[in-house]
Amino acid sequence: MLKYILALVLVTVAVSLACDDPFVEMPRPTRLLYPEDLSRAERKYHEKYMQIAYDLAIEKNNLFTTVIVAPNGTVACTGLNQNENSAIYHGEMVAIMNCSRIHNKNTWEGYSLYTTGESCVMCHAAAMWAGFSKVIYGTSIQTMYCDKCLGQIPVLSNQINALAYGLSGNNSPAQVIGGILRKKTDTIYPNFCLQPSNGWHVDPICSKCAKYPELDD
């Protein structure tokens, strides 16, 4: 009898633990493309717009700048980080709001979003809700957080991207491309590890097994 009671208790515990998360198991991150995965023409195309984002960052002395590009290759709008006005006014959020105001539309199928630094959870989710087809970044969250001690929610954008199945309508995940002009965009971000009193500084908790893709000169 005791054996059956113990089995019932174990089953009850297992069921209760299983119900802590009502959703399916976290899916595998979507594929993250790097410059070496692209054709020369594709790489040059994306570098053109990342250069615009980089130049804007240097001109405005802004860590996070965003450029939104239409399917025909024209720049639809840009955005700068404005965290002095609101903690949620990241470059991507400002750019998306600018585009909606300028072009009077709120969905962006076929459009590409370029950002100097990999999008945080909030910004990549916003890009998903807005329906962007491609999200392209220069410097990774791994570099900003682990190597430069810059405060970030330590979740990679392609992990968030994998959750697109929960969206209504066309819920295909965006194509995420990382490392475009990384050698340039990395220089935008100071090493906050050497500035412990800076408001951007954090003490990162990172795995030592993480690897970076090799970059061509």
Question: How would you portray this structure in words?
Answer:
This is CMP/dCMP-type deaminase domain-containing protein. GO terms for molecular function: tRNA-specific adenosine-34 deaminase activity. Keywords: Signal. It comes from Heterostelium pallidum (strain ATCC 26659 / Pp 5 / PN500). By secondary structure, the chain is of the alpha/beta class. It has one domain: Cytidine Deaminase, domain 2, CATH 3.40.140.10. It is 35% helix and 13% strand. The chain contains 7 helices and 6 strands, in the order αβαββαβαβααβα. β4, α4 and β5 form a beta-alpha-beta unit. The N terminus is likely disordered.
List the helices and strands and how they pair.
Layout (H helix, E strand, L loop, with lengths): L1 H17 L13 E2 L6 H21 L4 E5 L5 E6 L10 H13 L8 E6 L3 H10 L3 E6 L1 H7 L9 H5 L13 E3 L4 H4 L32
GO biological process, one term: tRNA wobble adenosine to inosine editing
Keywords: Signal
Pfam families: dCMP_cyt_deam_1
Q: Key terms for this structure?
A:
217 residues, alpha/beta, Cytidine Deaminase, domain 2, six-stranded mixed β-sheet, 7 helices, 6 strands, 35% helix, 13% strand, disordered N terminus, CMP/dCMP-type deaminase domain-containing protein, tRNA-specific adenosine-34 deaminase activity, signal, CMP_dCMP_dom, Cytidine_deaminase-like
